[in-house]
Every structure is written in C-alpha cells, then in structure tokens.
Amino acid sequence: RAEGRRQSGGGMDYFAGAFGTKKKKAPFSKLAQYKKVLREEDEDKDGKKKGISSRQYARRVAVGLSILLICLQLFRVYLRRNPPKPLSRGLPGEDKEWEVPCGDRLAPHVDGCSPAACARYVQPGFASPEEVQALLSLAQSGMKHGGGDGGATILDLPSGALSYGKQFVDVHQMLASKKQKLPEAHVKTFKEVTSRVRDLIMYRYGLETLYPTTPRFFSRMEDKPASTQHDEYWHEHIDARQYP
Fold first, then answer.
1. Against a cut of 0.90, is the pTM above it?
2. Pick from 12, 48, 178, 219: most CB atoms within 10 A?
3. 208-217 long-range contacts, Cβ below 8 Å, gap at least 24?
4. Among 222, 204, 221, 213, which residue's Cα sits nearest to residue 240?
5. Cα 213–217–220 angle (5° rounding)?
6. What H or E segment, with its residue span, contains residue 4?
7. DSSP 3-state percent helix, strand, coil across the chain (nearest 5)
C-alpha cells in the first residue's frame, strides 16, 4: 500500500510536471511598455519607408540655411579684402601708367579719404565694342535734348546736369515731364562699366574701399567758339577745386 501510494503520488507529480501549473498574468505596466516598444519599432519602419518627418525636414532646412548665410558672409568679407581682377572686354593692349603730382587741396587732410599718391592709368580694350556703342548711344540719347552754345556739351548722368545754351538743366526732370526716360539697357551698361572701373582701381592700387567722386560725365566737343568759361576746357585746373 505504501508503495502504491508512492507510485500514485509519483503519477500525480508526473501529471503536474507534464502539464504545468497555470501562468500568472504579466503586470499591466510591463505589458503597456512592451506594446510601446513594438509601436515605436513599427513607426521607425514606416518612417524609413516614407522618409523623414516634417519636423526633421524643417530642422534640416533651417540648419542648411544658417550654414549658407554664414558662408555668404565670409565670402563677402573675403571679396572686400581680396577684390577680383576685372577682365578686359575689348581688344588686348599694353597697360600704361604715369605718376602725376597730387594737386593742392583746400580741404584739410583726412586719413582714409585724402589721396596718398596720384597717377594716370590707361588700359586699352577695357570695354567691349558693344559696351562702347551702348555708351555712345546713351550719350546721344541725353544730349539731343540740350546742347551748349560753345564747343563743349556735358551730360552728367548721376546728377542729370546737361548743357543747355549757357546754363545747365536736369535731363532726368526734362524727360520725366515728357514721360520719357533714357534707355534702361544703356544705363545698365553705364553702371556696369563704371563699377568695373572702380574694381580695377581698387585691385591695382591695393585699396579696401573707394568712393568715386562726381561728376562723371560725357563730353562732346564741337568746332564752335567758346561761349562760357566752361567751354575753355584747355585751361589747367584741379578737380578738387573746380568741383568742391
């Protein structure tokens, strides 16, 4: 009997070991965490398929624009310190330069503004034939609205001064009253050429800044007797005193 009970007990133990006891349910917090991990993995897979999110895209665009702005600012500083050499647009030729004494100035010396050295420089072929023709057409377009009594006719585009008899008139106001204006393409060429002249001077003489003076005008000379002092262009003069 005793052995039978042991066998019977053994059989019961075997039955329990084969089918095991009932498992306990996992805690809710662990189950929720497990589902969250699975959901994040699914989102990562979907993100890789669809691409980056809108927030990530905006962040990358903002960083890219910031880097671009910094590079552009550094490039501007570099160009100020190392201006590029202007290229000639016309026929090649030998450059020529003459040293000339600086004229006496009535104004006191100002560091960074008053000239330290003076020279005359000529570069053949600086402007292309097309640019020369555009500048000539621009001068003719403005001067046909006026003309000096003497042999010299002057057209100053920045101020609009145009010789008209024995005086000057504003060509810009004159054209505006007629609802006209100078050819925009020729005016653009004028600005481009004068800008290249400025760049060339800065490059050749190692300048960091340059402030062009006025007037910057076209002159037309005709075989007429002088009518005013301005027509007597052959007299020596100093621009700083002539146009203070």
1. no
2. 219
3. 208/80, 208/81, 209/112, 211/113, 213/239, 213/243, 214/156, 214/158, 214/159, 214/243, 215/154, 215/156, 215/158, 215/159, 215/161, 215/243, 216/156, 216/157, 216/158, 217/154, 217/155, 217/156, 217/157, 217/161
4. 213
5. 155
6. helix 2-19
7. 50, 10, 40
Helices (H), strands (E): how many in the chain? 7, 7
Measured between alpha carbons, how far is 86 from 170 in angstroms, rounded to an integer? 33
Q: Which stretches does DSSP call E strand in the chain?
A: 96-99, 119-122, 147-148, 152-156, 161-165, 167-170, 217-221
**pLDDT per position as a tens digit, 179-190:** 999 999 999 999
d(CA 180, CA 172): 9
Distance CA 144, CA 199 (A): 31
Which residues sit opposite 169 in a β-bridge?
162
Instruction: From residue 227, give the alpha-carbon distance in Å to each of 74, 151, 156, 164.
Output: 55, 8, 20, 12
**Tens digit of each residue's pLDDT (9 = 90 or more) over 1-50:** 444 444 444 444 433 444 444 444 445 566 666 666 666 666 555 554 45
